[in-house]
Amino acid sequence: MAQTPRRTRRGGRSARQGRSRNIITAPYITRNIPCYDILGAESLEIIEANAETILHETGIEFRGDPEVLKIWKQAGADIQGERVRIPKGLAHNLCATAPASFTQHARNPARNVEIGGNSTVFAPVYGSPFVHDLDGGRRYGTLEDFHNFTRLAYLSPYLHHSGGTLCEPVDVDMATRHLDMIYSHIRYSDKAFMGSVTSEQNAKDTLAMAALVFGQEFITANTVLTSLINANSPLVFDATMLGALKTYARANQACIISPFILAGAMSPVTPAAVLAQALAEAMAGIALAQLIRPGAPVIFGAFVSSISMQSGAPTFGTPESSMLIMGAAQLARRLNVPFRSGGSFCAAKLPDAQAAQESANSLISTLLAGVNFVLHAAGWLEGGLVSSYEKFVMDTDQLGMMHVLARGIAVDAEAQAMDAIREVGPGGHFLGCAHTQAHFKTAFYNSAIADNNAFEQWQAEGSKDAMQRANALWKRQLAEYQPPPLDEATDEALKDFMARRKSGNSDS
User: Fold this and answer.
1) Which parts of 293-388 fold into alpha helices (H)?
2) Other Cβ atoms closer than 10 A to 352
3) What is the four-CA torsion angle of 112, 129, 498, 230, rounded to 10 degrees?
4) What is the rounded distance in angstroms from the CA atom of residue 150 to the CA atom of residue 142?
5) What per-residue confidence (pLDDT) applies to 251?
């Protein structure tokens, strides 16, 4: 039995808010609806065979890391320079030791998340250099912006995970800002969070800070970090990502092995070719993690979309993107590992109608595909260049709707409501019947953003659009925010570690 991490407190504010508004307090989604399978068995077998051919004939470049090349050579791969050609079947067989699902522990055990199987975990936007709100417009992100997005993610009952680089805080030293970002996740939230991958040393720093929170013995036996390892598509892993992958895999911490593909630029344009390349890249990274530590938790990631053939800019919310998400999800299930993809993607510059349309298309496809870990579930704007305050809360409202959709249709006696039909009979109405009175508070999703009032009432209240209502909502949430408790000794230990690392006096 896993130990309970030390120095934890149960923060209940967001859970209470969830109960008061929509009665949704689950730490993650357990889907009761089937996954949509877009590909038949024969098509899947063709794509898998093509992925094996890519690995065997073309190969993958593992750049700047002689240790990784040595590991692959010992495993039986053909090494020519930094090009690794993997015999057919080898990568797939190595992937077999990866767990089909795993628990990522949060410092509040009530917020642990299950990644894999029929679970879906929503995490916020990641990696944006800019932020945007209706008052200040588009600007570079700051550490205070980072803290604010951590707080907003903590407050939402529909985000199950604190995420990682919520925005890039350019007002703090680039060499040590990873310390500030990890501390923000620990101090201002008690949800699970992601580790730094910008260098091998930064990954080691993340592990050291996690040990101060959970205890070294606990993190040796349990997964407390999930971190994003991007392939440099097409068919390249660079030294930075490899250093982080090795560090986390050896420590039994989860890695999302994620090809980053914009079809037409980083892969061929056809979905079948994109899927074969994505599978080849993901299998190569997953297999490497298993060579480093058999049984290390991994997630098959697939950031897959297309580009505008007129401008070359990324496009989102398209039918091609939906097909790629659904196809890659099937491939991950056949590989028997958790899957990461999807989110609330858009190319819009404002949280406007384009943003809503593209994000809704992306998000519904994500849920129907059966994605297990959903990065960029809230706040993504302008193709990921911007973390938006307004869109963050607009997206979390949509995430609440996905919780309801994932429940499916209940058919127990209470849901059948035959007594209500008998009570009302022909020609009546159900507003006052006992069944409606018992369920009216929780029967339907109650949006925090949408305005469903009469035109006259909407006009009397200022004729506000969704962006303006979202602007008021995130400000109110931050004004009411209270941080979850954090043990004072743990807090001081974290601050001391950060101070020593920033001064260059740490021996970690």
Assistant:
1) 319-335, 353-369
2) 16
3) 60
4) 13
5) 98
Instruction: Give the residue ranges of DSSP H helices in 344-481.
Output: 353-369, 389-407, 413-416, 418-424, 434-439, 455-460, 466-480
Domains of the chain listed by start with CATH number: 13-35+96-407 (3.20.20.480)
Distance CA 445, CA 451 (A): 13
Q: Is the pTM of this model over 0.90?
A: yes
End-to-end CA distance of the chain: 30
According to DSSP, the residues that pair with 416 across neighbouring strands are: none
Main-chain dihedrals φ then ψ at residue 114, nearest 5 degrees: -100, 125
Chain segment 267-299, per-residue pLDDT in tens: 999 999 999 999 999 999 999 999 999 999 999
| Number of neighbouring beta carbons within 10 Å of residue 63 | 18
Which pLDDT tens digit goes with each residue over 51-109?
Answer: 999 999 999 999 999 999 999 999 999 999 999 999 999 999 999 999 999 999 999 99
Cα gap 237→86, rounded to integer Å: 15
Instruction: Evaluate the omega torsion of the peptide bond into residue 234 and state whether it is cis, within 30 degrees of 0.
Output: yes
